[in-house]
């Protein structure tokens, strides 16, 4: 558990941050200049601050004492890759530290990069190497400062999927800085919103999204892996007795998972449909309807224990006669579920 109560200044700007972050991913979200990166650097001991920082019951700073950066046992991934060109990838990861790299390299998909030089790597590969360096020291917490900023859209999408799998295996606090709420929603268990040097809201991702007009309409659905289809690379996820098919990215039977479903990717039907590409058709009951504007309505559907949000046109509500308490089919493309 990170317990943070710090104050610092950067020029004329004042910052006052209070945050508790346990195991899992906490995204620090806010505009440029809000203090996100400065907070990470203060936690790492790279910039001075006042107040207290505790990690797993160990004081990193407080009173007149501060643990030096190299003894804080934190892993950090910067926005721009910081690799030494005269060293191989393996040497960049080790930095003279001992320990087995085989399992870590396999986990991060960089086995075939270890003998190469940094100048031969793509942007995404460099960020994987930076992540490997941070994890190789078995840190007590991991800090990431907008690691996807320099990547093009296609590589960013691939990296988000990759990071989701890596983060799911970690049992330490992860603080992830981003200015994009959608990126935070896709990666984080919790979100802290930073504005003008203060944390103005913090809590579970779904709760924070519900407070914002730019919530990006995300539903988070919990379940477990019930079956695998190796022929087509699919996994069946049990969500309260109903099955959702998703792309299998290294899942194992019995594993608990959390799925992201975007309201824009959800269709509703009064009857089961035939001959369509969407593979998931779940039965549910309409719990709530919320008019967003004269043309748009959000429908909240209970499916097992999950609540799934769909955004539809107001005319669709009228044409289908949708109303709270009504039974409905929720239709979702497998490829759209994260």
TrEMBL record:
A Gene Ontology cellular component where this protein is annotated is: membrane
Q: Where is the ABC transporter domain?
A: 1-221
**What keywords would UniProt list here?**
ATP-binding, Cell inner membrane, Cell membrane, Membrane, Molybdenum, Nucleotide-binding, Translocase, Transport
A Pfam family matched in the record: TOBE
For this protein, the record's InterPro entries field holds:
AAA+_ATPase (IPR003593), ABC_transporter-like_ATP-bd (IPR003439), ABC_transporter-like_CS (IPR017871), Mo/tungstate-bd_C_term_dom (IPR008995), ModC_ABC_ATP-bd (IPR011868), Molybdenum_import_ModC (IPR050334), Mop_domain (IPR004606), P-loop_NTPase (IPR027417)
Question: What positions does the domain Mop occupy?
Answer: 275-338
Molecular function GO labels: ABC-type transporter activity; ATP binding; ATP hydrolysis activity; molybdate ion transmembrane transporter activity
Origin: domain of life: Bacteria
Family indicated by similarity = Belongs to the ABC transporter superfamily.
- Report what the protein is called: Molybdate-transporting ATPase
